[in-house]
């Protein structure tokens, strides 16, 4: 069930997406409100599950994670036991930043961030030793052109 939000809520969410470290006073000034109503709206949206945990976006390359692979996985296994093992294997690996189950020829796509190709091979070997997959294709991202977690709220 979708939660109803108004234009002020969207403005607040837009500000939080842009920079969640802003003070309530700064957010309130930017959305044309005062501190207490902004805090109440944020609290209600958190309680409604619109916002997840606040985190910090780290610079992967500055920390030595220079390789980003998109991993396409095809499997001939589709039973619940295989899927549970596969999902657990993904959860256990911090290199997996995103995992999606797809419609079409490819069953899953993973976004894997590692230090280099050798580290990717270690990840790959560990994954295929735990779960049977039919085909794996790894695509190395040569350049990240755009990456965001911001949603287009229409603010």
UniProtKB/TrEMBL annotation:
Residues 5-66 form the HTH asnC-type domain. The keyword S-adenosyl-L-methionine does not apply. It holds the Pfam family AsnC_trans_reg. The keyword Transcription applies. Keywords: DNA-binding, Transcription, Transcription regulation. GO terms for biological process: regulation of DNA-templated transcription; response to amino acid. It comes from the Bacteria. One of its GO terms (molecular function) is sequence-specific DNA binding. SUPFAM superfamilies: Dimeric alpha+beta barrel (SSF54909), Winged helix' DNA-binding domain (SSF46785). GO terms for cellular component: cytosol. PANTHER family: DNA-BINDING TRANSCRIPTIONAL ACTIVATOR DECR (PTHR30154:SF17), LEUCINE-RESPONSIVE REGULATORY PROTEIN (PTHR30154). This is Lrp/AsnC family transcriptional regulator.
